[in-house]
Amino acid sequence: MNVFIRVDASNEIGSGHLMRCLTLAKKLRLQGANVTFICREHIGHLCNLIDEKKFTVLKLPTPNKDWELPLLTPHSNWLGVPWFIDAEETRSLLHGHSVDLLIIDHYAINDKWERTLKDMVKNIMVIDDLADRKHQCDLLLDPTVLNDSNRYRALVPPHCKLFLGPSYVLLRQEFYEEKYQMKLRTGLVKRILIFFGGFDHTNETEKALSSFLELARNDIEADVVVGQQNIHKHKLKEICEQYSNLHFHCQVNNMATLMRHADLSIGAGGTTTWERCYLGLPTIVWSIAENQKFICELLGKMKVIKYLGEIHTVSQASLTKPLKKFIENEQERIEMSQLSAALMKDNFVNLQTMIEVIMKLGG
């Protein structure tokens, strides 16, 4: 089975879309699929990471800054080129290939782009979590749907098979392995995890770290994790080296282990939210992008996370007090751990079912 994945990473887009596609690609490869990525060489494209994972990546050229981009979707600028140029360039890369499935994980792509590619591919699968545009696809995955099973019915063809909700979150194998070693999250907070994604331009990591240091809790260890593309990483490393209870990590491969060892986390919305939930890790969250706001608000109301609001409303000063209270409130943390883990309880089985459905598309 030949699978191609159209996804981008960049300083603007972040790394979350690419990371979840890599997770899916690994699962499909284990089932015998040949998986190839198609990515544009934006600033911060992370194509080297795809290479490191032993996948072929076909590269679209770096965007010309002079392009006038038609607003086909609210995120059209993420393509870096007009949608029809992107579609034609993708067609050129696919020429001569047999494509059983084209997977698209891109907020800037909608049904017009997909129709342009339809005659070259046997099936199209879309990964989305916005539901703000139409799609011409055969499968659609949105793991963020919690209370609206009809969210996509007017946006996809009648035959499209939907995989909706946290039970379809794309988790790496390491999370399932760590789950088996989990103990009940009770007792005092002895270790905190701080992580705000692979890029973190606004340095939310330092904001969280400064609030933690203000508490002067030398009895609590803190793991501070950043991505290789984080422009603040050197400064953050220098801060961590000044304290024996701070541990700096860059571009880790053991995130699940760090989450299992933590008693509390501070981070952003997005893909990592579901990883923390699966391991029942109580977390203070603020949204760092507009597309994170809705799901963070909903999870906050469900008491699955402790949501403080949008990025511009959370300062170091406003964070310190709720962090102190959260550390001291064991009962709140226990309840949050149980609620978040319960949200993901069917993930392993349901995700495997989805993989089986995908593989059947290859005949």
How would you explain this protein's 3D organization?
The protein is of the alpha/beta class and 363 residues long. The protein has two domains: 2-169 and 346-360, Rossmann fold (3-Layer(aba) Sandwich); 174-343, Glycogen Phosphorylase B (Rossmann fold, 3-Layer(aba) Sandwich). Helix content is 37%, strand content 18%. The chain is built from 13 helices and 13 strands. The chain has helices spanning 16-30, 47-52, 83-94, 111-117, 173-179, 204-214, 233-240, 255-261, 271-278, 290-301, 316-328, 330-343, 347-360; strands at 2-7, 34-40, 56-60, 101-105, 124-127, 139-142, 161-164, 191-195, 221-226, 246-250, 264-268, 283-287, 306-310. The protein has a seven-stranded parallel β-sheet, sandwiched between helices. Strands 10-9-8-11-12-13 form a six-stranded parallel β-sheet, sandwiched between helices. Helix 5 (173-179) runs parallel beside helix 8. The longest helix is centred in the first third of the chain and has 15 residues, at 16-30. The radius of gyration is 21 Å and the shape is globular. 45% of the residues are buried. The model has no long low-confidence stretch (mean pLDDT 95). Its EC number is 3.6.1.57. It is an enzyme of class 3 (hydrolase).
**Whole-number radius of gyration?**
21 Å
- Strand runs, count: 13
Total of DSSP H or I helical runs spanning 4+ residues = 13
Order of helices and strands: EHEHEHEHEEEHEHEHEHEHEHEHHH
Question: Could you give the distance between the termini?
Answer: 8 Å
Cross-sheet strand order for the largest sheet: 3-2-1-4-5-6-7
- Let me know the largest β-sheet: 7 strands, parallel
User: Looking at CATH, which topology of the largest domain would you report?
Assistant: Rossmann fold
Instruction: Report the uncertain regions.
Output: none
Residue share in helix: 25-40%
What is the level 1 CATH name of the largest domain? Answer: Alpha Beta
Return the domain count. Answer: 2
Q: How much beta, percentage-wise?
A: 15-25%
CATH architecture of the largest domain: 3-Layer(aba) Sandwich
Shape: globular
Quickly give the structural class. alpha/beta
